[in-house]
Amino acid sequence: MDQFSAMQAFRRVVDLGSFSAAASQAGVSHTVLSRQVKQLEQQLGTQLLTRTTRRLHLTEAGALFYRHCAQILDQMQAMALELSEHQQQPTGTLRLGVATAFGELELGRWLPDFVERHPQLHIELHCSDRFVDLLEEEIDVCLRVTDALPDSSLVARRLANSEVVLVAAPGYLERHGAPATPDDLASHALLGYSQLLHPQRLLLSGAAGEQRDILMPRRLSANSPMALRAAAIGALGIASFDRFIVHDALQDGRLVPVLESWALPPRSLYAVYPQSRYLAPKVRALLDYVQAYYSTPRW
Asked: What are the residues facing 123 on neighbouring strands?
């Protein structure tokens, strides 16, 4: 017996005062409803209703059971309504993982508006330049700018392109000269990122389709893109960056492009999140917002 359905049937019979009215409202036969109530009485081991030709009466046990039954059903209805609203409105805590540079330079541009649009949402921000285990560290969604993602069971949604540029400070180029070809980089001080699993290489493509693969000998390496940015602005050497990291420095002249006629492979901004049959509204809201924001090139 479906006890929940039987409790609903019993309450409906009591509220409407007859099996016929309750059966009509429920869209079932009088026999089905009567059998549900009888099975409920058998399971409980007590009589809940007395039946006369004119009306139904609750027994003492029936009145006690009705009070508890109504309370349980009302709580179930409230829970179902709350869950339904929860599935439609972004609420709770959203654990967002981002790379350090992206967090420092980009979140301030759009996160305040996102938070204002969803006042019932609390953001827990995790900044790290390593690939975190989203399941182990309970991260809902991670935003990463990369040229490749490790194979995994995670879902990766590509949100935007990220152009990669080669730059140096004007002071550095004044002292050491600007490289005219990729091969000239061998005689320059190069700045590199130390967290790569393989030696950093520059794959440069020319306008005519020619390519140069340059292994970067490092004068300075760092595990932080922001530290490398500071080193480049300080005229320590030439470095490659995602454009969003050096966009403002290029605009105000603290950095200038190097080898502009040669292009580096672009990278992509991805949203990475665990696979789930039902995507939480808070995650869906963030994904939709960020994708819309970066649908217009920002850098």
From this structure: 94
User: E strands of 85-216, at which residues?
Assistant: 92-98, 121-127, 141-146, 155-162, 164-168, 190-193, 201-205, 211-215
**Prediction pTM value:** 0.66
Cα torsion at 179, 184, 186, 187 (round to 10°)? Answer: -70
Please write the tens of the pLDDT for every residue from 157-203: 898 888 999 999 999 999 999 999 999 998 899 998 876 655 567 88
Structure tokens at 33: 């409803």
Residue 1 has pLDDT above 70, yes or no: no
Residue 144 forms beta bridges with which residues? 270
Distances (CA, A) of 244 to 75, 101, 148, 163, 296: 51, 9, 18, 8, 14
C-alpha span between 279 and 264 (Å, rounded): 35
